[in-house]
Amino acid sequence: MDDQKDPARQESEREVQIWRRLRDAEKERDEARKAAEILRAVFDSSQDSIVIHSLDGQILEVNKAFERLHGISREEAVRLTIADISVSSMSMDEAKAIWAKAIAGEEQHFEWKGRRYRTGVAFDAEISLCGVRLNGKDVILGHVRDVTERKQAKAEIRDSRERLRQAHELLEGVTEGTKDQIADLDLDFRYTLFNRAYRKEFQRLFGTDIQLGDSMLTALAHLPAERTEPLIRLWRRALQGETFTAIEELDGAGHGEKFFEMRFNPLHDADGHLIGAAQIVRDVTANVQALRKLCKSEEQFRAFFQNASVGAGQMDLNGRFLRVNDRLCQILGYTPDKLAGKSIFEITHPEDLQRTRDALRELVSGEASACRLEKRYFRRDGKTIWVYVSVGVVRDAEGAPSHLVTVVQDMTERKQMEQELLAAKMAAEDANQAKSQFLANMSHELRTPMTVIMGALEYLEKSWDAPEREQLLAMIDTSAQRLLGIIEDLLDIGKIESGQLKIEEASFDLRECVRQAMEMCATPAREKGLHLAWSVDPQLPQQVCGDASRLGRVLVNLVGNAVKFTKTGDVTVRAVEMNRKLTFIIHDTGIGIPPDKIDLLFQPFTQVDSSLTRRYGGSGLGLAISKELVEMMGGDLAVESAVGAGSTFTFHLPLRPGKAPAPPPPAAAAGKCALPMHVLLAEDDPAVRELVTMVLRKRQLAVSVAENGRETVAQWRAGGIDLILMDLQMPEMDGLEATRQIRRLEGGDGKRTCIFALTAHARAEDREECLAAGMDGFLAKPLDMDALTRAIESCPCGARARMPGN
Fold first, then answer.
1. 709, part of any domain
2. Which helix (H) or strand (E) holds 313?
3. What CATH number is given to the structural domain containing 349?
4. Are residues 641 and 697 in the same domain?
5. Domain co-membership, 629 together with 683
6. CB-side exposure of 352: number of CA atoms within 13 Å?
7. How many structural domains are present in the chain?
8. What pLDDT digit, counting tens, does each position of 274-299 carry?
9. CA distance 141 to 447
10. What is the pLDDT of residues 348-375, one digit of tens each?
């Protein structure tokens, strides 16, 4: 048949088809090789770091820029993970979420905090991520641009992103993932590749929208030769096989001057034949402008170098000074001509020599990028100084070390301050330990009298009629006074440390003040068989001006201390006038104090010997408080002592005569006593209510009680109340507010009810606050029943109705 073909012809057509398929396959392989070559050229010529990592953060591939950034080789890099080069606060879960978006096709752009692996130095970077397929697996291609310097210069250069693909399918990602302009031309000037950034900038500069396959010469043909010839000349060099970088000004009409850094790389096929060239373009207008400014400011820099506040110098690679500024000469005490030519090893302290040599060796060899040391130098006058030295290496165009630059800061004063701070720290630690010992001792001191009080009370509860009753009651009273003294010591030391302790100025009977203090010390002295004697010079006035309470406290502390540390013999107290000052001399025949321990006597929380504290007891606060009180009263306190020969404490106070006290008011006439006084006790503590009520009723006084301020005001308004004993801290309404309400309700019509504060707040400012609220008196807890009786008798209603039994 006519439509049947000759077998030979059919065979020939099959051979043609096979040949065509082989040709097409060879062409595809050539294109793949070309793409791989293009990819490798782009990959290796990128000035930014490119990293490919798996979805668990394992690094799979890096480029040369990455190796330079981190100071490591590719073999070292692929053993790391992203976490090893990151200091970002981003968690792994957050990172994986971003990677998932990249794999899903969403390009990810963000700022990131990285860490140079070799040096550990942090840097700021802009990151571009995209997901690609590599060997059949999803991986992340990251483009990292170090923008640390740009941020410091506040330049606005955005992150350069490149996608790397091992084959042609990855090429587009690499070129489109960066703002750098990337383009490839074949030998006929036709575009085989360009990214969006290149196309956009080309259109902005030259007014032509290019397409793949277009000729660059045709795209520029409508422009004057003076505008296009510089660019064409560079491409010709690249298409002739030259690799180079050039900076050119390409002026887009009406857009001002723009400078571009152009990196050209020739492209070869698998057989080494030149097939075209690749170009990476970056806008460096800001850099060029900065360079121009730098050139103009060279003279200013030289002036700065000479007048810098830190020492600066240039050295050869062996550490010998080549050039120095004035400040470095001042630090080291040399003139410039004497310092130039001198090696840093000649002026380095011997103990710092080896680590200085090691640091410079690592710097010059490239093992370290910088050298920073705190070390010691010898000045020309022989004095040793501490300096902070920073040394950097300057390399030539080939990367070989050329010379060293150093900055030197004198930190001698800082080192001295550090030593002082260390000493202060040790002192603080010693003080803290002393306080800890004090607290342990204080616990013992508080528990001892409490043990006596609680044990004696329990014994009395079980056998009230026992013959030891009076002795037990005396023990309770003594221990309670001891406990109260400890509490007052703690309160006083707290007030002194916070600056809240106030010294009162009032006339008082000097001899009565001394007598009361001696009576408080008489019982422990008598129990030890000591002779306690005291005297007041008759030439001293009867009344003096000062703080009687604080003076008595000092005497009790000093005399009590003397009694405590005296086994046998006597304790004497003399008050005399000496150099127009009131002087007290307390002498004992006790164990004495070692000379090297006297300075510790007056330090709070510090014991001369903790074993003595355990043996003799005491809180360790008495002497410290006494010294503070004496100084606050305008005096001074000193001690003389010898071990085994006793001690003498002497303190001087300003001698200011006081005024004689006003005569007491005439007593109420006998037989004119009205009905027993009606006392309202405002107190929320049941035990205190029971005790005070018991005492008042034993004195045949009528007593009512109120548990809070509101109830107190209500009972007063009901009438018949002569005196109110008012606690300050009560529920619903405190004692101060209750007092104010009562005074407002009285209205100043002359009918005034006596109100006395009955409170544990015993500070002078508490007393003033109570009087300001309208109270007539102030009684501090623990309550002194005799003081309560005297207070009741002193109020106007007490004068009208004397208490029965008085």
1. yes
2. strand 311-315
3. 3.30.450.20
4. no
5. no
6. 21
7. 4
8. 999 999 988 888 877 776 675 565 55
9. 74
10. 999 999 999 998 898 888 888 888 888 9
